[in-house]
Specification:
Blueprint (H helix, E strand, L loop, with lengths): L3 E3 L3 H6 L1 H13 L6 H10 L1 H12 L3 E2 L5 E2 L8 E2 L4 E2 L1 H6 L9 E7 L3 E6 H17 L7 E5 L4 H12 L3 E5 L5 H11 L3 E5 L1 E4 L2 E4 L1 H9 L6 E5 L14 E3 H5 L12 E2 L3 E6 L9 E5 H15 L7 E4 L6 H7 L7 E6 L4 H4 L1 H8 L4 E5 H9 L4 H4 L7 E5 L5 H11 L4 E4 L1 E3 L4 E5 L6 E2 L5 E2 L5 E4 L11 E5 L9 E2 L6 H7 L7 E9 L5 E6 L13 H8 L5 E10 L8 E9 L7 H14 L8 E5 L12 H8 L28
Parallel strand pairs: 6-19, 8-9, 8-10, 10-13, 13-14, 18-19, 18-20, 20-21, 21-22, 33-34
Antiparallel strand pairs: 1-25, 2-5, 3-4, 5-15, 6-7, 11-12, 16-17, 17-29, 23-24, 24-26, 27-28, 28-30, 30-31, 32-33
Helix pairs in contact: 3-4, 4-11, 6-7, 8-9
Length: 656
């Protein structure tokens, strides 16, 4: 039986937002939703009642209308709140009084820059940005792009754009020219926000030469607004139609914001698939669905309360940035960090947590694993009394990393492993503040989401691995894909495997505690001898060995050129000064065999010096598999370190 690592106190359960929500549901609807399982079941069986209740509980600013769901039997094709009118930015800006001098945003740029904006200051800047965009002729449906770090001006730009009904899209400034053009070139933005450069790992990284080349290839861009993050104006004159941030805002005084009241499904964001196998897909998300889903996740699943101080380590190229900024709608203060989390020997985020009295610490599974590897024990050096919840996503969090959090970070903390993605700009499975945390398990399925696990024949299963699916419509489904007029790409992405069912592409298992384990992407699951294996099962074992820094596993077609079986190939990045020899390879295989099954044992173990990953830090098994099989990897710009792929090409070890 999986061990219980944490259980909320009776007092914490009583104070939880989800408890208050359940009490209200029971009173209004006369139903027994006394535990989370019953509440979840009611939320999917009575989804119209649930999402209406969530609108009310979340205090959405707007006109709801009578209808909650039209064409509810169509997936895709259902329409949520078809009579509603709202504005996303209004719901983030007007929750606190415009004269509130409390913190709205606190920003650290590594250990070099520290700033804060009050709610009044944020409102003032957003109102000026909105007016400047209106003066430029921006109207609902226009695209506004940001090539920006995770800093206050990025949020201001988003709020100004969405107040006018424009569609906002962002990339982080570490993207190369082609990667940005592959994304923004498809959506044709009229205005581009950017910076003169940024800081990373203690270094200054100017980018105006890159911006010049990007803008030269984006003919739709009429104005480039440059935020002087580094204070280096040199080179701005070479950027077509560029103007400094302060100069651009100067003619416009702060005042009330004129919010465009728009339909529930009016496009809000365009996000991008990772694009490692081709030009990225442009995924369009609606304002109402994003707002309502994020309010639910922050308030009910994250237990975010007014005045809480919410942090997620993210760039503007990852959907967790979009998720984080919605915390303003839950009346939280947002803590922003840009740069490397490993400055000051990996201590900077714990310093941020202590100094700014962080309540919610969000990061990636890889960050937690890296902290474990370097032996960081935050509770020894830092006062983390304010931190109630730790979020982890990006890849499956291993059971050993659960142990690390409770042993070295804090014993009394809700470790909320969450999983969903860019496709839904939110989560399918995530934390439940009133439930225990079990080792290696995500606490539960999201309210209002009819999540299940299917076998290959489309039958629901529990206690076994299968495809993660959602069986009925939900508000944060994409509105559409950009440049997909007949919806063919959209349907192909999610609905071909099981017609009328969202198939997410994750290999998962529902546990005995009604929790969830994610084993990795189903398109990268291994299939030796016809038995499907999640890659996370192998990573968990290998990366416990002190010699192994990181690993990547693929299935290699074997024998070569034949369709049929595959063999498991494991690539390992080892600690400095260690070479892979037969003894270490045998120990790796023995560790895997002892703790899993003989089918998990790799046929080949190969040493590399780097593991290729996307800009948001996810390892790219599929791209490596393409290289090993001599196939083209398109859109290398999607990778943070594309040069690493060359280590995997034509390896002699894989010829026999």
């Amino acid at each position: 039986m999986t061990s219980k690592l944490w259980e909320p106190s009776a007092e914490r359960i009583a104070r939880a937002n989800v408890t208050a929500f359940a009490v209200d549901v029971a009173r209004r609807h006369g139903v027994d939703v006394g535990d989370y399982a019953k509440l979840w079941r009611w939320s999917v069986d009575r989804k119209e009642d649930f999402w209406r209740a969530m609108w009310d509980y979340g205090g959405v600013i707007g006109t709801r209308g009578e209808r909650v769901l039209a064409d509810g039997d169509r997936m895709p094709g259902a329409a949520w709140f078809p009579d509603a009118r709202l504005n996303f930015a209004q719901n983030l800006l007007e929750r606190r009084r415009a004269d509130d001098d409390g913190d709205a945003l606190v920003f650290w740029g590594e250990d070099r820059v520290k700033r804060r904006l009050s709610h009044a200051q944020l409102h003032a800047l957003a109102s000026r940005t909105s007016a400047a965009l209106a003066s430029h002729g921006i109207v609902p449906g226009d695209r506004i792009a940001a090539f920006m770090p995770n800093m206050p001006e990025t949020i201001v730009a988003m709020l100004g754009a969405t107040s006018r009904g424009a569609i906002f899209s962002s990339c982080s400034p570490d993207f190369g020219v082609q990667g940005v053009v592959d994304r923004f070139g498809q959506i044709e933005p009229r205005v581009l926000f950017t910076v003169d450069g940024y800081y990373y790992n203690g270094k200054v990284v100017p980018i105006l030469d890159k911006v010049r080349d990007i803008v030269a290839r984006l003919p739709s861009v009429e104005r480039v607004v440059v935020v002087p993050y580094l204070g280096q104006a040199e080179g701005m004159g070479e950027v077509r139609n560029a103007v400094a941030w302060d100069t651009w805002l100067a003619p416009f005084l702060a005042g009330p914001v004129e919010y465009e009241q728009l339909p529930f499904d009016h496009p809000l964001y365009i996000l991008y698939s990772s694009g490692t196998t081709g030009v990225p897909k442009c995924i369009v998300h609606g304002a109402g669905g994003t707002l309502l889903q994020h309010l639910k996740e922050h308030q009910l699943h994250g237990d975010v309360k007014p005045g809480d101080r919410l942090f997620y380590f993210t760039t503007c190229g990852w959907m967790m940035w979009n998720w984080l900024v919605s915390g303003l709608a839950a009346r939280a203060t947002l803590l922003l960090f840009d740069g490397s989390p490993f400055v000051d020997r990996g201590r900077v985020l714990w310093e941020l947590a202590e100094t700014e009295k962080m309540t919610h610490f969000g990061t990636s599974a890889k960050y937690i694993d890296a902290q474990k590897k370097i032996g960081m024990v935050p509770h020894k050096d830092r006062d983390l009394a304010s931190v109630r919840t730790m979020f982890s996503t990006g890849s499956p969090l291993s059971p050993e990393s659960f142990d690390y959090v409770y042993q070295c970070v804090k014993a009394d903390i809700q470790l909320s492993s969450i999983s969903g993605g860019t496709d839904i700009v939110s989560c399918f499975v995530l934390g439940v503040p009133t439930r225990p945390v079990y080792r290696g398990e995500i606490q539960g399925r999201g309210l209002g989401l009819d999540v299940d696990v299917f076998d290959d024949q489309g039958r629901p299963i529990a206690g076994e691995q299968g495809e993660l699916v959602c069986k009925s419509p939900f508000p944060s489904m994409p509105v559409r894909f950009w440049n997909d007029p007949d919806g063919a790409k959209y349907r192909s992405a999610y609905f071909e495997r099981f017609p009328g069912i969202w198939c997410h592409g994750d290999w998962a298992e529902i546990t005995a505690h009604d929790g969830m384990i994610i084993y990795g992407r189903s398109d990268t699951t291994l299939n030796p001898g016809g038995v499907r294996i999640g890659t996370a099962e192998i990573y968990r074992q290998v990366e416990q060995l002190p010699e192994v820094i990181e690993s990547l596993v693929i299935g290699q077609d074997w024998p070569p050129g034949e369709v049929g079986d595959v063999r498991v190939v494991l690539f390992v990045k080892l600690a400095d000064g260690i070479a892979l020899d037969e003894a270490l390879a045998d120990r790796i295989k023995r560790t895997i065999r002892t703790n899993t099954t003989p089918r998990h044992v790799p046929a080949k173990v190969v040493q590399v010096t780097d593991i290729p990953r996307t800009k948001s830090g996810k390892i790219v098994e599929l791209a490596v598999r393409h290289v090993v099989h001599g196939r083209e990897v398109r859109n290398l710009e999607a990778l943070a370190n594309p040069e690493a792929l060359e280590q995997y090409r034509d390896r002699l070890e894989l010829k026999s």
